[in-house]
Write a structure and sequence with these properties.
Elements lengths: L9 H58 L16 H5 L15 E2 L9 E5 L5 E5 L9 E5 L5
Parallel strand pairs: 1-2
Antiparallel strand pairs: 2-3, 3-4
Length: 148
């Protein structure tokens, strides 16, 4: 009588498990690096957006003043409906890298990637990129609206 095999041998099963383990050992760290890289990119994008909006708004108001055209004044606060954060993110959709909170606040948060926006007594706006992920230190940019 002839017997037919209807399953896998133990060796075949062990080889398949070993292959899956090797692939997982390579894929999981690569995926984690990808996630961290995309989160750092989001922090950089939010920081660049804040710097660009503040610079553009300052230039717009300066150009309107130079030509005598009416225009909205620059914000004098960070928070509120008429503050810098509302100008940078008018619809409130920008979030920190993990998507659980707003991207901009009055102070930078190194733990969650929040961009800090502050105003000094001389109306200089400071934008701070947090030391998030592999960024080893905070980066700040002081923007003087009067310089435009």
């Amino acid at each position: 009588m002839k017997r037919t095999n209807a399953g896998f041998t133990l060796i075949e099963l062990l080889v398949a498990v070993a292959i899956v383990a090797i692939l997982a050992g390579i894929a999981i760290p690569a995926y984690q690096d990808y996630i961290e890289s995309s989160r750092r990119a989001k922090v950089v994008d939010n920081y660049s957006k804040a710097v660009s909006v503040i610079t553009a708004e300052s230039a717009r108001v300066a150009a309107a003043a130079a030509t005598g055209a009416p225009g909205d004044p620059l914000p004098t606060s960070v928070d509120g409906d008429d503050g810098w954060i509302a100008r940078i993110d008018p619809d409130g959709t920008a979030t920190i890298p993990d998507g659980t909170g707003p991207a901009f606040a009055t102070t930078a948060d190194d733990d969650n990637g929040t961009i800090g926006i502050s105003i000094a007594d001389d109306d200089v706006v400071t934008v701070t990129r947090p030391a998030y992920g592999r960024f080893t230190e905070q980066e700040t940019r002081d923007i003087d609206p009067a310089a435009y």
